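# step 3/5: fold
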Amino acid sequence: MKKVITYGTFDLLHYGHVNLLNRAKKLGDYLIVGLSTNEFNLQKNKTCFFDYEERKKMLESLRCVDEIIPETCWEQKPDDILRHDVSVFVMGDDWEGKFDYLKEYCEVVYLPRTPEISTTELKAKILK
């Protein structure tokens, strides 16, 4: 079985997220999502509308997502890849090059984002 892993906050889940997750799943047989915890988001200076459990429930409802694990720090990725026997690490192309160090553990793929939508833009519109 070819396992794929990706990470993110996935706050205000939208079709850009769904597009990325569906394309990630097509790279293998089993998709693992590392979902940033509330505490980790605070360390990244991110404010979420939804807490971890609510974001997790939304991701669990997607057919393409097979497993969700908590992302608690930047450094956990190599351990997750080894522990879950991951073949492909996927992130949006806004992270291009930042995770190339993981190539010693698995294939690293940067997928194009859906250009017309972002969580940052959605939050700005909501706050208006």
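# step 4/5: annotate
Residues 15 and 118 are 9 Å apart (CA to CA).
# step 5/5: archive (pending)
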